[in-house]
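Bumping my old thread because nobody answered last time. Still need a sequence for this structure:
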């Protein structure tokens, strides 16, 4: 199943593209495929235990709904990775 990841600007240098096509049936599988292809992106997205960093948000199809790691995907879905700005 083909899914597109809309890559945040901070990762464009690693991926060479704003959009990367990956495969997987869940968000977790898709991100695994993505980091398998771009290993340097893994440390930007996940902690040492393999959990998504707290300032990374994953959205599905521009719908404004945050996707969970086990969310099921369909062929042609788009995953948007957003780095949430923190601070005060």
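Sorry it took so long. Here it is:
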């Amino acid at each position: 199943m083909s899914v597109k990841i809309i890559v945040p600007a901070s990762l464009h240098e690693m991926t060479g593209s704003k959009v990367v096509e990956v495969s997987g049936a869940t968000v977790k599988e898709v991100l695994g495929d993505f980091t398998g292809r771009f290993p340097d992106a893994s440390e930007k997205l996940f902690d040492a235990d393999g959990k998504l960093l707290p300032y990374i948000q994953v959205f599905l199809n521009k719908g404004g709904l945050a996707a969970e790691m086990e969310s099921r995907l369909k062929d042609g879905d788009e995953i948007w990775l957003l780095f949430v700005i923190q601070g005060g």
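Residues 2-83 form a domain with the Ubiquitin-like (UB roll) fold (CATH 3.10.20.30). Let me know if any region looks off to you.
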